[in-house]
Amino acid sequence: MGGDHAPAEVIDGAILALEDGAHVILVGDQERIEPLLEERGVEIPVAHASQVIDFHDDAARAIRDKRDASIVVAARLVKDGEADAMVSAGSTGAVMAAATFLIGRLPGVTRAGIASIYPTGHVILDVGANIECKPEHLVQFAVMGAALATVYVHIDNPTVGLLNIGEEPTKGRDVERAAYQLLMDSAAVNFVGNVEGRDIATKKADVIVTDGFTGNVFLKSTEGAGKAIQQMIMETVAQPAYAEHVAGLMPAFLELRERLSAETVGGAHLVGTQGVVVIAHGSSSRFAIRNAIRIATEGADSGLVRKISAGIEAAVH
Amino acid sequence: MGGDHAPAEVIDGAILALEDGAHVILVGDQERIEPLLEERGVEIPVAHASQVIDFHDDAARAIRDKRDASIVVAARLVKDGEADAMVSAGSTGAVMAAATFLIGRLPGVTRAGIASIYPTGHVILDVGANIECKPEHLVQFAVMGAALATVYVHIDNPTVGLLNIGEEPTKGRDVERAAYQLLMDSAAVNFVGNVEGRDIATKKADVIVTDGFTGNVFLKSTEGAGKAIQQMIMETVAQPAYAEHVAGLMPAFLELRERLSAETVGGAHLVGTQGVVVIAHGSSSRFAIRNAIRIATEGADSGLVRKISAGIEAAVH
Q: pTM here?
């Protein structure tokens, strides 16, 4: 029921996911979902949920007050082992609250985080769950991000960098200086030191950790830079003399646009709970939903939660 | 004497600037500079400075201990009215310290800031002078950034946005929430509310204000995104089938690269002191130095400091 185009677009995404071999349970209002399934001649099990949490609701309160909301019911399916993962294009705050309070945090995790996997293969977290963090949270993010890099980017022993404004250990605010030391001292983290925003274009670190405010700015500013450059490219090649060559390169442009598209990525990963939780963008098309289901399935199949849990245990001891 | 290629490259940049009509005084070691000028058959006045502050020096201490350092001598020329502006490719910290302590802050300015003007025309500050800020500093940055947008981007009454992680006034950390209110209440600022990183691709705000940590991450991550996209474009068009069209578009690519280059920008603006101060990148080529001198001249000619001062006065009263 979540997202700008629910439930039809979400259903269409789920249908595409079935073709990928995923096992999907749709969670939401049966009376709205079933006619749409019938129209499409497809059978997908539906877990009924009579309520919806929207973006205006206070998330923490909503998951208590709306016990039959689709996000709450979906989280309960994961909690009860009836589902291996949860995907939502609904309110990020509500997904976080439901996952944290209903599915529950992993032992040793004091803050769940939201991670984004870049088209470059870099894992960045936190990108918005915790706007202020303590140094020990950043260590947990490092461990959880490394598990994501292992599963989704297929990197053994991923390197971790701390997002900062310079390389030296003394750079940054108190939180970065303290986190630097903790990360350096942690045997569970393959720490390579401070990295900078420009390292999104280098292989210096596979995983980049930061607080949720800075990470969110990082995420959106790289996205903004991508759009600005795309606009500049269009302006620059708009001359008639270039038209033939632009046409000739169109397949390459489309391939690149696909590679950079948020649709292709599918969603962000909420990590630190006892379930696999994927947060899709509110504006997700069916293709984004399909990809979100794909990465949720991949996370469940590859034992993402077990890997994170093992990492946290190693970091704590 | 500052920067990776000093003094030869800086001298060559100054020679290019002479062709633009700039009046240049070179500040540094006469015995090293004069033979290079002679070799080139050019006469440029030299203000002798026997010492150099390097990147390893503690900036605040260095400007006290090395009273004959080129950065200190250059700042004194501005202070004494013998120069209208100062350009340095040396240590950013030393330039800041020299400008703040020797040239002096403008009345009402409690923190000088470093501003970057993007190829998109957006003015962003602070990008690194103050890693932690109070709400009132962000108001001062708003006023100073607006003066820069007026002078360099030729915008009347520029709009100002507060860099945040969402549009609502309640978003962000304590500093953003308090700054939002101050900016909203300030008659001296044309405040349009919160903006996000992706607004570097929109016209929502001409000036974007934030603390120096976040601004530095913003600056470097957009730079990194630009590089990453450039790499992806190169990979994508590397197929032989595209070669002819790539060659055909080469002039457009070069034009775009030029537009996006830090060399073209010339340098960042240290604002809030009683002088025009431009900080060029340490790796500046002669062309970057020429552009840095061009923007310094432009700032001096257009009364940048007077405009900033008037804005601060309006904001304080």
A: 0.94
